[in-house]
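We include the entry.

. . .
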Amino acid sequence: MTDSEPPKNVFDDVKIEKQGEILIDKWKEFGSMDAIKDDLFLFVIEAHGVIEELTTRAICQNIIDDGYSSDAFNYVYSDMSQYHREKLLSQCGILDETLPNSLDNFRGLRNQIAHNRGRNIDWKGDNVEETVREAIDTVAALHEVAYQTE
């Protein structure tokens, strides 16, 4: 690890896949937002934490030169907004063309949950599985970008 490289696995992105599958199973079993709401909100917050870590790592791996100090990493990790991380990766052509839309949607959902404490979220039950699977796929795609070797 260089000074500009983030630590590995601040969050466990493999755990997100397992949590997502368990959540989908619960949704299929109970079919009620009330039955899964707490688990769903926790999943969204944790998955977004993984996305933040992976986008930071992707920037450090693909954009920041190894010669830069840890200050560059600290800026990307602590001071750069998630929106700007995603925009930078997208504009540099590092992300697959479908990923920015998924990231934007998921960031919006996370912000609704985090800033409204889950109140007034208009989430129809028919897209729970689709949203969770999209989060799992997004984390997997970002993992590939963040941990690719040249």
Summary: The chain has one domain: 13-146.
